[in-house]
């Protein structure tokens, strides 16, 4: 029937678009930077150059002069604590240095990927240099009020972000790497508003015989991850599921002003009861009938209390691609519609999809 033919046309078109991507296989080129040049690049680590800080350390914006005419903006990460006689401070500094060295070792071992923050090099293991991400974090985009552009992401843009992060997790797991700290604060946007996964201080190699002690961020940490032996890819999948619920609902992972405070405890019962209208934030819409429920069911599987029932990152990626691209449902494409009218409607829909996914001043690509 025309209905199935129309579905075949749309699905085939977007399958081609999805599969048309670049493959990056070479290892990232690591450079040994001169420490003094990095000091100069940050104006002596001036507070005016500080763009981020936390338990991991400080992150500064740096301007590296490659020659007399060219320069490059980078991000430079350094431990936050100064040398101190305090034993607790020395311990904290030692832990920060371990995280920094671990991050350098992990990133330098990975092939290049468009979904993971690019590692540029280091300086005597004290400083790490990565690509500069000028548009902040996913947490800021979803939860921090601002009058400056861009506006809150559209519903379809949110799905696109979820897809890119799923691809990042899939890439890491294919390389035998567990991130262990996936959260909206560790998802950064480049100049084209493409999201990338960052902060590998807690990352671990799946093949290592000695597993690290459980670690992560409250609200994102898998409750099943109670001992080193429980470390697996399912730990990252749980954290990703929390981020997916954040993206869909616009609610924080932990919000003590609400009850329940946990986004998982709040959202999963609503999903199980089919009350999906109470979950959507930021104008969630029914562009494709059934897409909303399908996406939420995937999120619920990711945060399942049964770790073995959680999907793989590859399965998540495939499911979100289907959420973005079809097939169309009976409601959106009636059976009585003629073939030619259906083709016209499909073209209009693809145009609207691209316009919806496009942010001000940016060009959209549906991968």
UniProtKB/TrEMBL annotation:
InterPro entries listed in its UniProt record: Kinase-like_dom_sf, Prot_kinase_dom, Protein_kinase_ATP_BS, Ser/Thr_kinase_AS
Residue ranges of domain Protein kinase in the record: 45-322
SMART domains linked to this entry: S_TKc
Record flagged with keyword Nucleus: no
Keywords from the UniProt entry: ATP-binding, Kinase, Nucleotide-binding, Serine/threonine-protein kinase, Transferase
Signal peptide positions on this chain: none
Keyword Kinase assigned: yes
GO molecular function: ATP binding; protein serine/threonine kinase activity
One cellular component term from this protein's GO annotations in UniProt: plasma membrane
Residues binding ATP: 77
Family as reported in the entry's similarity comment: Belongs to the protein kinase superfamily.
Stated name of the protein: Serine/threonine-protein kinase-like protein
């Amino acid at each position: 029937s025309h209905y199935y033919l129309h579905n075949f046309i749309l699905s085939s078109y977007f399958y081609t678009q999805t599969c048309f991507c670049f493959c990056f296989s070479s290892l990232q080129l690591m450079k040994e930077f001169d420490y003094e040049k990095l000091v100069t690049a940050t104006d002596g680590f001036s507070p005016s150059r500080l763009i981020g800080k936390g338990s991991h350390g400080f992150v500064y914006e740096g301007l590296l002069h490659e020659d007399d005419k060219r320069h490059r903006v980078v991000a430079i990460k350094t431990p936050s604590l100064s040398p101190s006689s305090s034993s607790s401070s020395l311990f904290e500094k030692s832990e920060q240095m371990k995280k920094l060295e671990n991050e350098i070792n992990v990133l330098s071992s990975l092939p290049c990927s468009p979904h993971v923050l690019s590692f540029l090099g280091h300086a005597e293991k004290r400083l790490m240099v990565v690509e500069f991400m000028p548009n902040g974090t996913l947490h800021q985009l979803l939860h921090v009020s601002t009058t400056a552009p861009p506006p809150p992401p559209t519903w379809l843009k949110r799905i696109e972000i979820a897809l890119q992060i799923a691809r990042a997790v899939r890439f890491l797991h294919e390389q035998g790497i567990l991130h262990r700290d996936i959260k909206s604060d560790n998802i950064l946007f480049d100049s084209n508003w493409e999201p990338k996964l960052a902060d590998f201080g807690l990352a671990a190699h799946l093949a290592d015989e000695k597993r690290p002690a459980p670690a992560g961020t409250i609200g994102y940490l898998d409750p099943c991850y109670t001992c080193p032996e429980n470390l697996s890819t399912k730990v990252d999948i749980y954290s990703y599921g929390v981020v997916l619920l954040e993206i869909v609902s616009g609610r924080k992972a932990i919000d003590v002003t609400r009850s329940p405070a946990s986004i998982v405890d709040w959202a999963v019962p609503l999903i199980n009861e089919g009350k999906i209208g109470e979950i959507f934030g930021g104008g969630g819409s029914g562009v494709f009938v059934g897409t909303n429920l399908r996406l939420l069911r995937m999120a619920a599987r990711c945060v399942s209390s049964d770790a073995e029932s959680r999907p793989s990152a590859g399965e998540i990626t495939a499911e979100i691609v289907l959420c973005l691209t079809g097939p169309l449902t009976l409601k959106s494409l009636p059976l009585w519609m003629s073939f030619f009218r259906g083709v016209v409607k499909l073209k209009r829909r693809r145009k609207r999809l691209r316009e919806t996914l496009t942010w001000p001043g940016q060009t959209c690509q549906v991968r």
